[in-house]
Design a protein that fits this description.
The protein has 2 domains: about 40 residues; about 80 residues, Orthogonal Bundle (Arc Repressor Mutant, subunit A). About 65% of the residues lie in helices and about 10% in strands. It contains 6 helices and 3 strands. Strands 1-3-2 form a 3-stranded antiparallel β-sheet. Strand 2 and strand 3 form a beta hairpin. Helix 2 packs across helix 4. The radius of gyration is 18 Å and the shape is globular. The N terminus is likely disordered.
Length: about 150
């Protein structure tokens, strides 16, 4: 069994990278959820919808990759977004088993109103952090992500 390496290289679970990132992620998601509440969508739905907004006609497999979701989760989220009138599925002419996803006209207005909320929250979250620190954080996060991908393969 592999040893858990923490930020301070101690053996305390509450100092582990996973614990800290998980805790921050839940807090950030909760903050974003409170800002999206008037629009009737969740951060998870917004993330998927934003990817569809960026690329009309995206297939579900690519949508799952870009939004960091697995196929069953994407299907569930798309079902909800379809019922809310935000997306349409059309059969993929190149693959009878697949669907292409399109945003409805209401999505442009929704994104015009909610994208600034996401950007504003991001600005609040990085307040007091220098560009150099953000660059270092980006490099660290990329390395951790590469480590995660490597561990999945092992």
């Amino acid at each position: 069994m592999k040893e858990c390496i923490s930020l301070k290289r101690s053996k305390l679970p509450h100092q582990s990278i996973g614990f800290r990132f998980g805790n921050m992620s839940r807090k950030m998601s909760s903050l974003f959820a409170s800002r999206l509440k008037p629009y009737g969508i969740t951060p998870e739905q917004w993330t998927v919808l934003y990817q569809v907004y960026l690329q009309e006609g995206i297939n579900q497999k690519e949508l799952a990759l870009r939004s960091g979701k697995d196929q069953p989760s994407i299907t569930r989220i798309l079902d909800v977004l379809d019922k809310k009138g935000f997306v349409r599925r059309k059969p993929d002419p190149g693959d009878r088993r697949a669907y292409l996803i399109y945003a409805t006209p209401a999505v442009k207005q929704l994104m015009n109103e909610t994208e600034p909320l996401e950007l504003s929250l991001n600005d609040e979250l990085i307040a007091g952090i220098t560009d150099e620190q953000l660059e270092t954080l980006d490099q660290i996060m990329k390395q951790i992500n590469a480590n995660i991908d490597r561990i999945f393969v092992e």
